[in-house]
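Chain A, query sequence.
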Amino acid sequence: MRKLIFYCLTLLFLNGVSAGDINESNFLEFLSKKNSFYAEFMQTTFKDGQDRKIKGEIKANRRGMFKVVYQEPLNEIIFSDGNRLYRLDKEIEQLDILEIDTTLSESPIGIFSSNKEELEGMFSVTGCSIDEEYVTCFLEPKSEESFLKHASIQLINDELSSLTYVDSFEQKVILDFTNLSWDNIPDNKFTFQIPEGIDVVNH
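Chain A, predicted structure.
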C-alpha cells in the first residue's frame, strides 16, 4: 500500500486570499477553500544521489475524488471515487482496487483531499516564510506512522508553484505545477472505463 501511495501525488486547492495574508495560523484553512483543482506537473524524485523525472496531470475535488495520469516511463493511472482507490498499471495490464484508509489520508494526496477539520487533525503548520513574491509554508504530520516526514508548499504571486516533501523511504519529491485551473470538475471526469484484457485485483 505504501508503494502505491508513493506514486500518488498531491494536489492543491487555493482561494482568493492574498499571499501576503498567509501565515501558519490560517494556511490549512487557506488550502481547504477551493473545491476543484487541475494541473499538469513535472515530478522529480531524488534518492541516493540520483533523480527521476515523470510528467503527468492531476484533477481532484475536496470530496475525496482524484485522478492522476502519469506519462512514460511510469505509464499509470491512479484514481479514487472517494470510497476506493484504483491503480491501473498498463505495463502489466492490471487494475488494483483497494479500500481507502488512514494511510492515504496521511499521504500527499490526503493533504489536499481532506477537509479543514481533518487537516488540522493530521498536520501542523510549523511556519510560513515570505520573500517578495514567494510564500512557502511548512507542514509536519502529527502521527509518527505518517507516509510523510515533512512537506513544504510554495506560492509565487498568489499562484501555486510547487510541493516538496520527504517520505518515509527518505525520498525527496518535488512537484512543479503548470496550467492550473480551479474550475469545477464534473464527477464523471473521475470515472474510468476498464480496458479489455485488464486483470482486476481486489485487495
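The chain has one domain: 2-187. Residues 13 and 195 are 31 Å apart (CA to CA).
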